[in-house]
Amino acid sequence: MDLIDWGTMRGYGTRSLRKLAYLRMTKSFKTYALHKEVAAASGTHLEYADNPILHLLATIDRGLRSVDCTTILISLEPKHIAALMMNVNDNTSHLL
Q: Engineering a disulfide at 80: which of 14, 48, 60, 76 sits with its beta carbon 3.0 to 4.6 angstroms away?
């Protein structure tokens, strides 16, 4: 119901939970930091931030899950990261 309410309030014309979850995750990844920037003597670099994000489609038998990413995805747009996250399920690792 939270996803449907979120989509309705933003004017999305769908009640598809998968589509709404994708849209919400795409919006989240515009500001969400999966990695942290670390300063070093030679400059800055990105490191794993241990900052999991809630997977918006809970499973019936296991409830809410979170997904974390150990791969630096800075070259991907938020919509591509959201698409990757939407494909995480019980048959795949919960680390990308």
A: 76
Does the global pTM surpass 0.85? no
Question: pLDDT tens digits, residue range 35-94?
Answer: 888 999 999 998 888 888 888 887 777 777 888 888 888 889 999 999 988 888 655 544
Q: How far apart are CA 12 and CA 62, in angstroms?
A: 28
Which secondary-structure segment (H or E) carries 80?
Answer: helix 78-86
CA distances from 23 to 15, 16, 28, 57, 68 (A): 12, 11, 9, 12, 18
Q: How many CA atoms lie less than 13 Å away from 87 in the CB half-sphere?
A: 6
Alpha carbons 66 and 74: distance in angstroms, whole number: 20
Tell me how far apart the alpha carbons of residues 38 and 32 are, in angstroms, rounded to a whole number.
17
Tokens standing for residue 88: 């995480």
